[in-house]
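tool=predict chain=A
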Amino acid sequence: MCKVLSGHVLRFCQQLRQNGVNVGPGETMDALRALEAVDMADERIFHSALRLVLCSSLEEQEKFDRIYQLYFHSQYKKEDKAGIALFSEEMHTDDKQEKDKRQERYAPGSVLAAPSNDKMGESKGFSLSARLALYDVNGSATPCIPQEKEAEVLKSAKDLCRQVQLCKSRRWKPMKHGVRLDMRRTFRKSVAYGGEVLNLVRKGKPPRQAEFVLLCDGSRSMEGIAETVLQFAWALTRSAKRVETFLFSTRLKRVTGQFKLAFGKARPKLTVQGTEWGGGTRIGESLDTFVSRYGSQLLNPNTIVIIASDGLDTGAIEELESAMRILRRKAAGIIWLNPLLSLSGYLPEARGMKTALPYIDVFTSVESLFTGLRWLKPIR
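tool=predict ok
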């Protein structure tokens, strides 16, 4: 299904939700999957598929029919911007001769073929796919990094870098208080004094330096929380040697480059698409994309993976389990920040959270970012 059609379905579901129809991210994704299985060129099938998935009562069906007519058949207006009539009444006729005439009228090369955006309202008779393909509704989003508690978050990021204790390196390196004498460097240094040993050089195995990968859930259910996580990601970027930052909603987006473009204390200005911020939640699919596309480059025994999400996954649970298993095997540790943990009586019963829990080293709330991360235990 084309991205433009997905954008229209998302907007239509948003209108349903604003008018009291109980449509959430799960129902929206089910609607998109249903449309992939039907003939969208037939409007009656298109209408029935959406109505069957998105409505659960007679009252919701009545609201659905009214909003459907407004959105797809009229010059729908929102914020003083006129929309387009995506369907015309001509599409309901079963007269084969009439259909052939319309196809001939709008065939490539005719005067009515492929009209521009400003003439969309006059182009009646087009199929749904043709009308939607004429212009794009996918807009970009700009997540804001808050300024509040910036000093506390920066201190927490520095505490995290200091508290993470990885295993020692296997290589011997010169150390002031090393456990062994480095005879070769000691004799080499004595050459300057005529072979007389005046200073002993010692060596040891220093602890490995941690690298961080932060994956932030930017879906609607994380609204107001994801911005705080981005603030922590920015503070961590200023404190650690190597930090990779990703956003995901229904798709994964690497934003490390946008963080690096910000110099000094200036906060980065992030630009992402609607599928990467403020949409549904596909944790498993996003983590699987990260593992397959970036895992070989970014995952190693020095990597700490930080995932900030509420665990309300609407995608395939098998992908989440497979991705978590790989992260557990390749990374030094996994920290999961769940904002719902701050609620009294919360239990990780959601299927996504329950699947990921066995692979997590540290499971805590997002609020712990402001407590100096005293909860952190040594990671393998």
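DSSP finds 13 helices and 13 strands in the chain. The first helix runs from residue 3 to 18.
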